Amino acid sequence: MPVMNERPRMMIFVDGENLVFRYQAMIQNRALRPSLNTFHKQDEYVWAINLQIPGMYRVIRAYYYTSIVGDDPKIENTINEMKSLSVSSSGPGSINKLYPVVFKKPLKTYKSRRVDIQMTIDILTHIHRDTIDAVYLISGDGDFSPVLNEVISHGKHAYVGALSDGFSTSLQQAADVTVNLDSIFFNLEV
Fold first, then answer.
1. What is the separation, in whole angstroms, between the first and last Cα of the chain?
2. Which end of the chain has the lower number of beta carbons within 10 A, N or C?
């Protein structure tokens, strides 16, 4: 539990594989233009530095999970690029840099199960250890619905942000709050 007069603790868990492939599909299929605040590396990561976090929370960590194809120097370079990205959070005591969790994959496949498994382990570990009060999951993947149900059953708040393309209905129903990220990642003005 947070100390009296201290803001509740939140951790952000980004399913980078889901996010980057949904983002790329939306550009290709809908001819959308990226916002000026969006950073993208094909098949590896996408991030928008103007993603807003509810002000009542103190962000203590923002993990970005992904897997990429390449040799060790390429992966290390990508990790360093991702470490320069941040989360917009307000107030004292909030950490605003991304912490990449990158797995090496041998082939260009759509998605690695390692990302989902590690995210699930990390979310449930923090919930069971009572080190956080809220989870902000950035993913549209319905496979995370049972994870959010577990978060809520432990009295924690569950936020979900995703792009509209492929945003699972079961995931939306499991969350306390849902956020459509289309206007964060894309310039939707005509």
1. 46
2. C
Copy the structure tokens of residue 77: 């370079």
∠ Cα 149 49 59 (to 5°)? 45
Sheet hosting strand 9-15, strand order edge to edge: 99-104, 58-68, 9-15, 134-138, 157-162, 177-180
**For the chain, which domains are there?**
9-187 (3.40.50.1010)
Question: Which of 159 and 31 is assigned the larger pLDDT?
Answer: 159
pLDDT, position 188:
84
Render pLDDT for 135-177 as a digit per residue (tens, 0 to 9): 999 999 999 999 999 999 999 999 999 999 999 999 999 999 9
Q: Is the sign of the CA dihedral 81, 83, 84, 85 positive or negative?
A: positive
